[in-house]
Amino acid sequence: LGADRETVLICGAGLVGSLLAIYLARMGHDVQLFERHPDPRSHPPPSGRSINLTLCDRGLAALDHVDAGRAAREISVPCKGRMIHAVDGALEFQPYTNRGHALYSIARNDLNRLLLDTAIGRGGVHCHFEKKCVEVDLAAPACTFRDTRTGEISELRARRLFGADGVHSAVRREMQKALRFDFTQKYLDQAYKELHVPPPPGGGWALAHSAIHIWPRGHYMLIGFPNIDRSFTLALHMPYDGHPSYASITSPEALLDLFRTSFPDALPLLPALVEDFFSHPETSMVTVQCSSWTYLDRVALIGDAAHGIVPSYGQGANAGFEDCAVLSTCLQQAGPGDVQGALQQYERQRKPNADAIAALSLEHFIELRELVSDPKFLLRKEIERRIYDLHPDLYMPLYAMVSFSLMPYTEALRRDRMQRGIVDEILAIPEVRDKLGSEEVRAAIAERLQACERGAVC
Ligand SMILES: Cc1cc2nc3c(=O)[nH]c(=O)nc-3n(C[C@H](O)[C@H](O)[C@H](O)COP(=O)(O)OP(=O)(O)OC[C@H]3O[C@@H](n4cnc5c(N)ncnc54)[C@H](O)[C@@H]3O)c2cc1C
């Protein structure tokens, strides 16, 4: 930021605000971090709101950059693929790649605590909890906070203000009112509820722990993430209306009936199913897109405040962490004389990527819910894995580009659209399912990739 030590105000000490604080303090600034909730290091999250995350290469790279990646991996469970649960109890493990790539399952609260400890421990960051931002002055810039225990009002003026206050951002709301500002939000017709699978009393894990577990059932599904204490957090995704839905499951009998018929192998693992379901909130999922993310050289939005995406691809926090790394690079490259240019450059780089991952996340939601148990879809995935094995320099499946590379999301989207044509052609080979390893298929793959290399339309 500026040449001199500046006071920087970050509104929101969630995952992205805490990481941004570390980045900005490393640049020598006095970071004032404000959060409406109590300190998560001394207050556990409310029941049913733990939210597990998976960190992938891009989020971990942004953490590694400030030496926080190793500690994050240590409190995570690596998962190398999905375990698909059929209604009859049959299991199918689908590796993310054939190269041992893993997502890291981590409790959001544990990660938040780690980032806050790191930020405070390294100095330069001052945290103020239970301070809700109730007013924003973009021009100053300044925020007015209300203490959520005492009601006391205070104001802080700073050199810069970063809105890291999540998908319902107060900073963004002020930008909507005060500036020529584009904004859209779109809710899914589904919500999720958290259910808890405790570790078995005799030790070990209730489910294979090196996988994310999915029970795909068309318009509803169950998805489970391992925790380091050997428990699993399951999220039941269902529509608001129809059957089954939050409107139709209104009694313990109806809930147990749903689990007996749709998730019979999960039922014995959920001793508190009825209590969890009827006491935990159902949480909606929304895509938020907006522009401009910045105001002069004073204010910028970051993380979910700038781009809310549905959680299906597990990219919200990963993308927010990338924002922090890109913003810090832009500020460093522009130098103290052109902070406005740096903020604009940050938005130019990140906004198209945020839009790309928003679109991919909506697509992936359908994939998880419906397609992962569809034989045609699985054949497609198998072909993709084979092409990747044979020609890793020329072809990378979309999932790997998003989760196991640092390629911009826009580039992953562009390449995926091109690569789909290749897989379509291989799928069109008569009886391809029975000759996947054959010379004929290998030659067709090589020929198609070469045509793409030469610039022919793919
Ligand atoms: C079910 C689910 C699963 C997900 N899975 C993944 C995953 O696997 N991988 C992944 O990368 N992402 C995942 N995400 C997305 C991820 O949780 C978010 O993208 C990420 O938490 C965004 O971080 P953030 O700091 O921008 O916003 P938030 O985490 O929302 O933090 C914003 C902070 O600002 C505070 N705040 C809000 N308003 C105010 C105010 N007025 N005054 C002061 N403070 C305020 C909030 O209390 C909060 O602490 C998932 C999300 C959900 C819901």
Written account of the structure:
With 458 residues, this protein is of the alpha+beta class. 38% of the residues lie in helices and 24% in strands. The chain is built from 13 helices and 20 strands. Strands 6-5-14-15-16-13-17-20 form an 8-stranded mixed beta sheet, sandwiched between helices. The protein has a 6-stranded mixed beta sheet with strand order 8-2-1-12-19-18, with helices on both faces. A hairpin with a 4-residue loop joins strand 14 and strand 15. Helix 1 packs parallel to helix 4 and helix 12 crosses helix 13. The protein is globular, with a radius of gyration of 23 Å. 42% of the residues are buried. The model has no long low-confidence stretch (mean pLDDT 93). Bound molecules: flavin-adenine dinucleotide.
Number of strands: 20
Proportion in β-strands? 15-25%
Q: How would the global form be characterised? A: globular
Strand order of the largest sheet: 6-5-14-15-16-13-17-20
Which residues form runs of ≥5 with pLDDT under 50?
none
Secondary structure class reads: alpha+beta
Gyration radius from CA atoms, angstroms: 23 Å
- Distinct ligands, ions and cofactors found in the model: flavin-adenine dinucleotide
Count of DSSP H/I helices:
13
Largest sheet: 8 strands, mixed
Average pLDDT, rounded to a whole number, is 93
Give the proportion of residues in helices: 25-40%
In whole angstroms, the N-to-C terminal distance is: 44 Å
